[in-house]
Specification:
Elements (H helix, E strand, L loop, with lengths): L4 E4 L14 E4 L2 E4 L17 H18 L7 E8 L5 H12 L5 E6 L10 E8 L9
Parallel strand pairs: 4-5
Antiparallel strand pairs: 1-2, 2-3, 3-6, 4-6
Helix pairs in contact: 1-2
């Protein structure tokens, strides 16, 4: 069985800052690459705090997943890259608020720096398509 790989960067999400698409989808598998916590209209960070940047990530992931027939309830795994591990608790609070009761697998690590100046974290994820896109979990 041959799977075609479809790539996209939907409207109302930040413009990629490099030669990549935000989304790659093959069959039911969806991969979303790292983004930054920026307002897609201005390209500027939504705030200088971890809470606002985390919430922006998850809002953008929701838009991206919906563009390929999925939703946050179908996320399998999220990687979180923090510039300061001291921001872990604040990120977790914002993450819990946006993710609700769904608890996909997750990895969180500290990194030295990020491509977007002022970015405190970045995330990427793996998800599957929603078999019933009219019923969000």
């Amino acid at each position: 069985m041959q799977l075609n790989v479809e790539t996209s960067s939907p409207p109302n999400t930040m413009t990629p800052i490099g030669p990549y698409s935000h989304i790659a989808k093959a069959g039911q598998l969806i991969m979303i690459g790292r983004t930054a916590g920026v307002d897609p209209q201005t390209g500027e960070l939504v705030g200088v705090d971890v809470t606002s940047q985390t919430e922006q990530f998850l809002d953008a992931f929701k838009i991206m997943l919906e563009s390929v027939g999925s939703d946050l309830g179908h996320v399998l795994h999220i990687n979180v890259f923090l510039t300061e591990m001291e921001n872990f608790a604040e990120m977790n609070a914002a993450y819990t608020k946006k993710m609700g009761v769904h608890r996909p697998a997750r990895t969180a690590v500290a990194v030295i720096s990020l491509p977007k100046d002022g970015g405190l974290l970045t995330m990427n994820l793996t998800a599957v398509a929603n078999p019933d896109p009219h019923h969000e979990r």
